[in-house]
Amino acid sequence: MRRILILDDEPLVAMMMEDWLSELGFEPVGPVSSVASALRATYEQEIDGAILDVSLGAGGNCYEVAEALRERSIPFAFATGRGAEDLDIRFQGVAVLTKPFDFEAVKTLLSSLFK
Questions:
Q1: Which CATH superfamily is domain 3-113 in?
Q2: Which helix (H) or strand (E) holds 67?
Q3: Which one of 31, 43, 55, 108 counts the least CB within 10 Å of its CB?
């Protein structure tokens, strides 16, 4: 079973993602709500992929986690209420779930991450 890290600082979104991942046959890792927790999970746990909320509390973002995942060749996608064009230039072309998203969007995203 593939393990997917969930980084999202909105508890309801994180719980929904956790439920959907389980329903789709994935094992959720987390959810975690901070960069520090996500980095710890990235290095201390076996994960196969990740869905990262771009904007985190207090003006933070997930890009440090995305870099760590990229360095380890772990596929990931971003979740954001903004468009893909607002992503840091380093991550243009990474898959994006646009909020609000639904079950089918998550299912499609995961299929594309693990072709």
A1: Response regulator (3.40.50.2300)
A2: helix 63-71
A3: 43
